[in-house]
Amino acid sequence: MGMTMRPLALLALSTLLPAVALGDEITTAAGNAADPALDLVRASVSRDGRDLIFALTVAGEAGSALPAAAGALGGATVWSYVWPTGLDSAIVGFEAGQGILAFAVTVHPDFDDTPLFDEDGDGTLDNDGARWHSHWVVLEPDGGCGAGSLKVKAIPEGATPRLPKTWPGLPILIDSPGWAPRFEAATLRVRVPFEEPPIAGTAYDGVTAALRVNASVHDPLLCVVDVFDVASGDLSLPGRVE
Fold first, then answer.
1. Phi and psi dihedrals of 135, rounded to 5?
2. The dihedral formed by the CA atoms of 48, 166, 199 and 132, expressed in degrees to the nearest 10
3. Which of 14, 16, 38, 86 is spaced 20 to 30 Å from 160 by Cα?
C-alpha cells in the first residue's frame, strides 16, 4: 500500500508532530502515517461505570487497511490499533506485574486466535482472523525482535501462570475476550467491562502498529516490528482515564 513504516524503540521513539493530552483524550495532527486508516488524530480511554470505552480516530476510514496474507502462521503479519496502558496485568486475569498491559484491536488473515468466538457467524470458530477482533496483551522488551523492540510476553515451557478464562491457548500472555470493535467512519470504539472498575487517572496512549509471528514459530513468538503512528509521539502514555 506504499506506506512508510518505522521500527519501534522502547526508550526513544522518533518525535512526531506535537500531541496534546487533555484529560481522557490525546489529540495530534494528521500526517504521521502514509495510510490515512492508520494515521491517528485522537486517542481516548474513558470510564463509564465499570466499563472502559477505548476509542481511536484516524485521518481516513478506520479499519479499512488490511495486511496481506503470508500463507502460513510463521511470518504472518498482524495489524493493530493499540492502547498501551498503565493498568496492572492482574486486572484482566494474568499474574500481577507482568509488563505493559495493552488493549488491542487486530486483524491477521493467516490464523485465528479467538477460538471461543465466531466473528463472521458462519458456524466455524477457527476461520475469523481476517476480521477485526480484540485482545489484551502483555508487552515487554526483547532484543530478539530488534534493538529496543517489544514482544508479547512468552509463557516458558512447563510454566503454569495465572491466565484469563478466555486465554486462546497460545504460549504467550494474550487474552481473547470477545469484546466487539465498532467502526464508524474515522472512529473505532470498544466497550470493555470489568469486574472491578479501573482506577481513575490510569495512564494510556494510542498506537497503530504491525506485529509479526516468528517464521520459526518460537520465542519471541510475536514481535512488534513496525510502528505506523503514536498518538503521543513518544509513547509517554500522557492520557489519563477520567
1. -145, 155
2. -50
3. 86
